[in-house]
Amino acid sequence: MKSVLSNDYLVLAARVFIGFVFVFASVDKVAQPDEFAISIDNYKLLTDEMATLTATVLPWVELLSGLGILAGVYFRGTSLLASMMSLIFVLAVGSALARGLDISCGCFSQDPNVGKINWEKIVQNILLVGFSLYLLYSTSDRFKLEHLLRRSTPKDSPE
């Protein structure tokens, strides 16, 4: 019996789930970086300049991580990035809740009335951390583009 970490279909299902979550989460942020900077600033954890820098870079990291996970390219790195981003978000939401902030999470929409932070957001993102770590430690290569490219590369021929 295959281990859970090497089950090709469980790993693929987790990849599709995590990959789509990160790609979908990035779309609105990439399209509206100024609004995303406001969402970040609402957490009161970064300076305005750092919020702007984060709003400019983070959505692209989310998008590339999601695509990397989906395609199975730079898989360990993108899985690690996904788990780190989710963990940082858990800490940011926990901090905001502890300080009594009533703000939108800025996850999938920059509308300030959508996606208010709550304990459910923390649980959801802890699950994302778990799935991302599962992918990081998985041993299945079957449906990864990296694996297919390695298999199709001709071996060095003896001269």
Describe the structure.
With 159 residues, the chain is an all-alpha fold. It has one domain. 68% of the residues lie in helices and 0% in strands. The protein contains 6 helices and no strands. Helix 2 packs across helix 3. The relative contact order is 0.17. The model has no long low-confidence stretch (mean pLDDT 92).
Task: Indicate the topology.
Blueprint: H1 8-31, H2 33-41, H3 48-71, H4 75-98, H5 119-137, H6 145-152
Helix pairs in contact: 1-3, 1-5, 2-3, 3-4, 4-5
Count of DSSP-assigned helices = 6
- Any low-confidence stretches, pLDDT <50, length ≥5? none
Major β-sheet profile: none
By secondary-structure content and strand pairing, the structural class works out as mainly alpha
Distance between the termini: 43 Å
